[in-house]
Recover the amino acids of this structure.
């Protein structure tokens, strides 16, 4: 082919390795996600809490600022595990909003336009397709979760007159692990639900519903049966417990409602397996009518 | 080694056998895939692309197993699906570039080839418009552009003229002919329209009920079949027909001096004129007719079981 000659020309150049095709999907998915003004708006909103936290850290570590505030001590804002727990929780719930907006854009558009036959006719497997979309969503959520939280941690380490960072490395590890677990789970959930719904708005609602409706059911189970195991359906509760333990912050739940970490992990793994099964059933080049 | 080699290929979808023991080697420059609805044409294409695993037997493309070497097979194939299949939210050039990058072209080359492919199929002026704003004909062309952009060795076109108006259809057929003429790409074209296959293909695979009803080179098949001739004569028609039977022709006489003949290969029209001259018969009209693709298709449909013996494997 040639733009000027309008004749077909075979391609004889180099070809990229097969494994990089996943990154092509991720790159285009990422671009698609961030092409929306609503995504940019949500992202801007997600940056506001870290800015507030940043100011809090500045005030806590700056003697002049403390003097201007009336000579109060550093107790005004205590920078500890609890502070970072709040930062992580706020960012994580913003990440849910972002995921519920982005995930349907990544999958629902492809399903609505029946793009899977054409996409999967290229050297990319179904697993590769899902992985590419997963990476796009995971990267987008990383920008608003562990990345700003670790930047806050780094700034606190830099601002503190004491060797604070070295003494609190567990907080950094907890922030990273807690955020990674949450955004991996959110990405799986978002993609799985989006793959079953062709309407983007419905998919967005379904993602929120999948997080909060079971929590209500879990509360009913807990109340009626007087058992703590109903909280295993309560994703916000489970994640808060997990984050508190990862960061070493004091637990807010009463001891009799406290869930074992193993049970929380098993529940999250089970939910991810369910998401994988949903994706396996839906991400196909061709629907096969059994009979 | 053919372009596509089928060896006892059986594909089951659920409990239904959709392809039943297909064996054959497709070797033409442009291969037509014909058959009534439900014959298994699309399933065969999907199997070649690795979408359906064979329950028995194998399908090979350029010697590569369609299941085991799926990625390499797909890399060598450009696929234009029958139904609408695109990413409507992307512009034409971005969509084709995306597909070319997925096929393995580096980003810069993919962009260059995307522009070229879109100009080649005639969408150069609208390449920056979103695909979901394209007309049906343009969507068909953008699917062709994405199938061509990475320079495949085998181009699979599933109903390429589906839903096109006569002008757009002619343009599509012309493009297919040009690609075929260029020679570096083999074509596998599935269509319900015998005329499309007749115009573009040199080999045809006819499927019926998941079995091969015929696999032949269209030109060779035409040549190997008997030639039919219609004559309009004036004079002693009966005596003339006895004379031409003596040459080894089968013939039938009709009122008004009309004669229909089936003539063997070694008989020329000149031989008929010689007999007519000897017997004082005037030949007013002579019409020679060879098998059309329609004849080949209909015969294959009628004699599906018997035709498998004719399969050129």
């Amino acid at each position: 082919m040639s733009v000027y000659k309008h004749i077909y020309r075979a391609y004889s150049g180099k070809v990229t390795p097969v494994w990089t095709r996943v990154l092509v999907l991720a790159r285009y998915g990422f671009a698609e996600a961030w092409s929306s003004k609503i995504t940019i708006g949500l992202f801007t909103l997600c940056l506001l809490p870290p800015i507030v936290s940043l100011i809090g850290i500045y005030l806590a570590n700056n003697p002049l600022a403390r003097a201007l505030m009336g000579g109060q001590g550093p107790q005004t804002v205590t920078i500890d595990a609890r502070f970072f727990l709040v930062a992580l929780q706020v960012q994580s719930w913003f990440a849910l909003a972002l995921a519920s907006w982005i995930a349907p854009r990544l999958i629902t558009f492809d399903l609505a336009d029946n793009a899977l036959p054409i996409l999967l006719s290229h050297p990319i497997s179904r697993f590769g397709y899902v992985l590419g979309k997963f990476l796009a969503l995971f990267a987008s959520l990383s920008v608003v979760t562990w990345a700003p939280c670790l930047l806050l941690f780094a700034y606190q380490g830099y601002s503190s007159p004491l060797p604070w960072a070295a003494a609190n490395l567990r907080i950094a590890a907890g922030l990273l692990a807690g955020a990674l677990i949450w955004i991996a789970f959110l990405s799986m959930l978002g993609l799985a639900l989006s793959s079953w719904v062709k309407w983007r708005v419905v998919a967005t609602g379904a993602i929120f519903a999948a997080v909060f409706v079971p929590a209500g059911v879990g509360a009913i189970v807990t109340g009626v049966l007087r058992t703590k195991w109903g909280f295993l359906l309560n994703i916000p509760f489970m994640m808060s417990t997990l984050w508190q333990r990862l960061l070493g912050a004091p637990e807010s739940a009463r001891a009799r409602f406290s869930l074992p970490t193993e049970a929380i992990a098993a529940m999250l793994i089970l939910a991810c397996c369910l998401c994988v099964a949903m994706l396996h059933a839906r991400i196909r080049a061709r629907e096969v009518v059994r009979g | 080694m053919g372009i596509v080699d089928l060896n006892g290929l059986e594909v089951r979808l659920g409990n239904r056998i959709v392809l039943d023991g297909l064996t054959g080697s497709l070797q033409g420059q442009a291969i037509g895939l014909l058959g009534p609805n439900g014959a298994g044409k699309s399933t065969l294409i999907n199997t070649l692309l690795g979408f359906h695993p064979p329950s028995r037997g194998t399908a090979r493309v350029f010697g590569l197993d369609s299941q085991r070497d799926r990625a390499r097979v797909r890399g060598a194939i450009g696929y234009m699906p029958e139904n609408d299949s695109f990413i409507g939210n992307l512009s034409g050039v971005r969509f084709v570039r995306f597909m070319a990058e997925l096929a393995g072209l580096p980003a810069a080359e993919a962009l260059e080839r995307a522009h070229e492919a879109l100009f080649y199929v005639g969408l150069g002026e609208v390449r920056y418009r979103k695909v979901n704003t394209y007309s049906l004909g343009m969507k068909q062309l953008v699917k062709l552009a994405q199938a061509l952009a990475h320079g495949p060795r085998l181009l699979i076109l599933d109903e390429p003229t589906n839903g096109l108006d006569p002008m757009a259809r002619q343009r599509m057929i012309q493009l297919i002919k040009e690609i075929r003429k260029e020679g570096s790409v083999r074509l596998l074209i599935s269509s319900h329209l015998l005329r499309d296959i007749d115009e573009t293909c040199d080999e045809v695979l006819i499927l019926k009920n998941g079995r091969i009803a015929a696999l032949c080179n269209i030109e060779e098949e035409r040549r190997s079949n008997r030639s039919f001739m219609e004559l309009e004569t004036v004079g002693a028609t009966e005596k003339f027909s006895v004379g031409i039977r003596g040459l080894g022709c089968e013939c039938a006489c009709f009122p008004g001096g009309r004669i229909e003949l089936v003539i063997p290969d070694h008989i020329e029209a000149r031989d008929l004129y010689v007999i007519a001259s000897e017997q004082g018969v005037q030949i007013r009209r002579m019409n020679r007719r060879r098998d059309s693709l329609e004849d080949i298709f209909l015969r294959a449909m009628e004699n599906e079981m018997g035709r498998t013996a004719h399969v050129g494997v």
